[in-house]
Specification:
By secondary structure, the protein is α/β, with parallel strands linked by helices. The chain has three domains: about 60 residues, PUA domain (Archaeosine Trna-guanine Transglycosylase, Chain: A, domain 4, Roll), CATH 2.30.130.10; about 100 residues, Transcription Regulator spoIIAA (2-Layer Sandwich); about 190 residues, Rossmann fold (3-Layer(aba) Sandwich). The protein contains eleven helices and 20 strands. A seven-stranded mixed β-sheet has the order 16-15-14-17-18-20-19, sandwiched between helices. A six-stranded mixed β-sheet has the order 2-6-5-4-1-3. Strands 7-8-9-10-11 form a five-stranded mixed β-sheet. The mean pLDDT is about 95.
Length: about 400
């Protein structure tokens, strides 16, 4: 069957020549025959020059590019891309081992597979499709994952019901594509154990992107009183306790999240660990608590998911960081993050700068943080660099 051709308007090929993997609807002059949602298309310039092949979509991002060279997207394509991604993780020391068996195998554009996320939890791969093209290829992708990791992966779980566009049309249902491994008692990250459910948890079950930042906190935590806000399953709390924190307080507005955090602390340190879980809005807790801390972690959900919300989001980051700074002891450390893709590093840093300035305290940046190497950023697709963070010492 002939692959439909997407013809670009004159001059609109420039972003593709710079290897940006998205084509927006406004750049398209015509389509040779209207493709189905998720169908493979070839992209050509107005001067009849081949530019790319990718998945078609009817939204503002009309094509997500799989290759800038002509190729056939078949089983061999999926095997090659997934094997390449796995080789990188092996070089990073992230192939499941006695210390860590949680990592990201596929990170969308960063691994040349836009619209696809795959996380590994022990013997299970959990897949999320953010494009219809990837969703329609999920069986081939699952087979390639199992082939790439034959001694490790026994199950592949598809969790695309909350991420797939046009869900009303495709009616995705989460479930196993291969195998049927139920979540085990715990999974390992730098020796810390976490109870994780990809069936019920947020994202694919755990926020893997904070792995290295949790480990950094562990190095600073000895004998410190630590406040972990927006704590979810208590990842930063467990790391702080592993580092020897004298006390850890976890705050989250969700009772379910606090129950998970408490359970993970107990899983690692027993029922007598110096940890308190508090069900409360973080802004409210910082406003009303009458104590101070040596280290505060601010890891909120995305305050802005689109540009129209950016201004309000930056004000929220400023207010949040100022409230935390006011609860930090002299010499204390602030671990502060933003996972909002539309918030740039500069915007976030300026918001934190404003909070420090209003507080009237001297501040020094010790670390500038980002997502780990198993969440690679395509250099031609800076939008993929969503996580940014700072570790600041306040005098």
């Amino acid at each position: 069957m002939e692959i439909p051709r997407v013809i670009l308007k004159p001059g609109k090929e420039q972003s593709l020549q710079r290897f940006h993997p998205w084509i927006f609807s406004g750049a398209i002059k015509s389509v040779s025959s209207m493709p189905d949602e998720g169908q493979l298309v070839e992209v050509w310039s107005s001067e009849a020059k081949f530019l790319a092949v990718g998945h078609f979509a009817s939204g503002s991002i009309s094509v997500r590019v799989l290759s800038f060279q002509p190729l056939t997207v078949d089983d061999n394509f999926w095997h090659t891309r997934i094997f390449d991604a796995l080789e990188l993780r092996k070089r990073l020391g992230l192939y499941p081992n006695d210390s860590t068996n949680i990592f990201r195998l596929i990170h969308g554009e960063g691994d040349g597979l836009p619209g696809l996320i795959v996380d590994i939890y022990g013997s299970t791969a959990v897949m999320q499709c953010h494009s219809v093209g990837m969703y329609l290829s999920r069986n081939a992708i699952a087979a390639a994952i199992a082939e790439a990791m034959p001694d490790t992966i026994t199950s592949v779980y598809d969790k695309s019901s909350g991420t797939l566009p046009y869900r009303e049309r495709f009616k995705p249902v989460d479930g196993y594509i291969l195998g049927n491994d139920k979540p085990k008692e715990s999974y390992l990250e730098y020796g810390n154990r976490y109870s994780i459910s990809w069936v019920e948890g947020q994202k694919t079950g755990f926020f893997i992107d904070q792995r290295e930042n949790r480990f950094l906190l562990q190095r600073y935590a000895k004998d410190m009183r630590v406040l972990n806000t927006f704590g979810y399953t208590g990842g930063f709390s467990v790391s702080a306790l592993r580092g020897g924190a004298s006390e850890v307080v976890t705050v989250d507005s969700s009772a379910t999240a606090i129950a998970l955090a408490n359970a993970n602390v107990e899983l690692n340190f027993g029922a007598d660990a110096p940890h308190t879980g508090i069900i409360m809005d973080t802004f409210e807790y910082l406003r009303t608590c009458n104590r101070s801390f040596d280290i505060i972690v601010l890891d909120p959900p995305a305050f802005a998911k689109h540009n129209e919300a950016l201004r309000n989001a930056l004000q929220a980051y400023k207010r949040l960081n100022l409230a935390a700074i006011r609860r930090l002891k002299p010499g204390g450390l602030l671990f502060t993050f933003s996972c909002s893709q539309v918030v740039s590093k500069t915007d976030f840093r300026n918001a934190v700068f404003s909070a420090c300035a209003i507080s009237g305290r001297q501040a020094s940046i010790l670390h500038q943080l980002s997502q780990p190497a198993d969440h690679p950023v395509n250099i031609y697709h800076p939008e993929g660099e969503y996580l940014k963070g700072l570790v600041i010492r306040l005098l």
